[in-house]
Amino acid sequence: MDKTRHIFPARRLPVTKGAGGGYLCVATDISDIKRSENALKESEKKYRILVNNLPNIVYKAYMDGSVEFFDDKIEALTGYGKEEFLSGRLNWYDLIVKEDIDHVKDPFRKALAGDKSYIRQFRIKTRNGKIIWIEDGAQIFCDEKGKVEFITGAFLDITVRKTAEEALRKSEEKYRSILETMEEGYFEVDLNGNMTFSNNGLCIMVGSGQNELLGLNYRSFFTLETAERLYNLFNGVFLTGEPKAEAGCELVRKDGSAGFFDLSVYLMRDHEGRPSGFRGISRDITERMKSEQEKHRLEEQLTHARKLESIGTLAGGVAHDFNNLLMALQGNATLIQLATDKNHPNYEKLENITALVKTGADLTRRILEFARGGNYFIETSDLNEVIRNTLNMFARTKKEIKIIEKYGKDLWLADIDRGQIGRVLLNLYVNASDAMPGGGTMYIETENVILSESRIPANYSKQEKFVKITVTDTGIGMDDETIRRIFEPFFSTKERGRGTGLGLASVYGIIKGNNGFIEVVSEINKGTTFEIYFPASGSDKKVLHAEETGLAVPLKGVETILLVDDESIIREVGSELLKTLGYDVICAGSGMEAIEMLKKVVEKPTLGNHKPKKPDLVLLDMIMPDMGGAEAFAEIKKINPGMKVLLASGYSIDGAACRILDSGCNGFIQKPYTIFEISRKVREILEN
User: Mind listing the pLDDT tens digit for each residue in 217-265?
Assistant: First the structure.
């Protein structure tokens, strides 16, 4: 192998007299040095390639943030070239987000006091303004006196990881919030049934805190029978991998009270797909189970209620037919009365017949309310007037009770059944009187109130304005247990034979049926207060009854009315009443006949085709064979969507009638109706 030689420049030797001239040369072998230099270059090249291909960026820096070395990837990451750092024009600290400076310095201080190494995470701002996350791992080098000489390390862009971690954190926070706020109980147990997680809903259900439940086996807070059922449930889920449910699980709470739950259980698996535990959801059904347990005690009372329902169905049918008869009596008496001079000896007898018909109608009204339930007739009403009327009746019989009245000024109107609400008030007055056997004071007050959402039942979510009635007595009061049960059917604090236990249950039902709600506050020996709330009406005009209008004569008209009723006597008397009022009357004996008439009205006339007169209003009976009022109304609207329809029935206004009214029917009138009532109702619809 040839050696590399280094030849120094030749030096000419001095010429001595009598001697020949020449040169002196010295040669030194530097082959090893050159080989070392080449090896060093190759090593540097190899490690530079290695460093540049690492995902981390390697650096050497000083405490003041100046940089001695950066690998070539720094520009791709930050947008700044490494020469900008190495020349001192740019300091590393210039890139760090100000809010993260402490996150940079604190780990450095701790490392300096320890093993001189650290890992820290912080944000930097690149040349184009982008914020990225950096993870920096470094080693601090100090001299023999402990003074920092330099720092070497490598950092990595972890922006994607931090973004994922933040998304995961928010996701976990979101679902933890859902779990903690849901009413249902959520839990997780290991394969042995030991609790590993529970939400707040479960803690409330079992009456224990999360720390108390952690590690506790589920069998410890269920009855033995339920624990056995749940063991089979969990085992079935484990073997099949399919979710399963168990109903009516009995729990013993921390305070010893019993609770009942429905459970749904699911299998949990680890990242390798192996069973790792169970998760489940529990629903508290304690109140429902208690109600079912009370069922046996109420069986006799429920049997009695069913009998009443059967009697009511029969009574309702009788009352309906009776109202049709009263309609005929009322109409004929009115027609004769209109044709009879007031001085005629029979005129007074006709008035007596009319009064008796009214009494009969009031009787059938009560029967229908008992038989069919629901609202009798909703009208926009002034509750102050309703209260005054009922108080006048009550005060005459209970003179030992002092009554103090306070009526709200400019009280909002309410859409109620006057008759039903009147009976509610009378019931509350009587209860107040019974609570003050030795006499006392009863306070009646009305006012307009605006309730916050937290005070309003769920079905009134968009309603804020209410009319409030307060009935207070100074009587014996009630304890908490009695207050909880006063609205239950058949519950009574009165001695046997003095009450049915249906009074306040009826009060509750009627108020609810009139879209209101009731609250009660009471204290033993300090009296009781009932507060009733009705939504304020959207109308500012109350409905006037015939006697309130002050009309001396009925209202008349000249329009055409189609009278539809399957009872011939009703058609006869009804048409005569309407004709007396000036109307042109067409009669139909069924819904089908009425539909055929209306179809002919809208048909194009043909040769020999007689086109009947178009009615301005249809007076439609509710109950008819073959085609009832509901079906007939639907067909009428198909033929002529703008046709005005007045619904009539011997029944009270019930669910079916309400549905027809909600579908666009213009009004309802109860049979038997007087000539004043029908005249007012017809004009009201035609003129609107």
Answer: 988 888 888 889 999 999 999 999 999 999 888 888 888 888 888 989 9
Strands 244-252 and 258-269: antiparallel
Among candidate residues 431, 513, 506, 518, the one with its CA nearest the CA of residue 475: 431
Task: Tell me the torsion sign for CA atoms 270, 274, 277, 280.
Answer: positive
Q: What is the distance between the alpha carbons of residues 326 and 277, in angstroms, rounded to a whole number?
A: 74
Picking from 56, 228, 69, 301, the residue whose alpha carbon sits closest to that of residue 155 is 56
Q: Tokens at residue 613, please?
A: 């007169």
Residue 282: which of 224, 211, 201, 208 has the closest Cα?
Answer: 201
Topology annotation, domain 383-535? Heat Shock Protein 90 (3.30.565)
CATH of 308-372+550-688, one of 3.20.20.190, 3.30.1140.32, 1.20.1440.230, 3.40.50.2300: 3.40.50.2300
- Taking phi over 0 as left and psi of -120 to 50 as alpha, with beta for the rest, 181 belongs to alpha
Closest-CA residue to 379 (of 142, 577, 537): 537
Strands 617-621 and 644-649, how do they pair?
Answer: parallel
Condensed to tens digits (0 to 9), the pLDDT of residues 564-602 reads 998 888 888 888 889 989 999 999 999 999 999 998 887
Reduce the DSSP state of residue 550 to 3 states and report it.
Answer: coil
Q: Distance (Å, rounded) from C-alpha 565 to C-alpha 625? A: 10
SS3 percent helix, strand, coil of the chain, rounded to 5, is: 45, 25, 30
Q: What pLDDT score does 1 carry?
A: 46
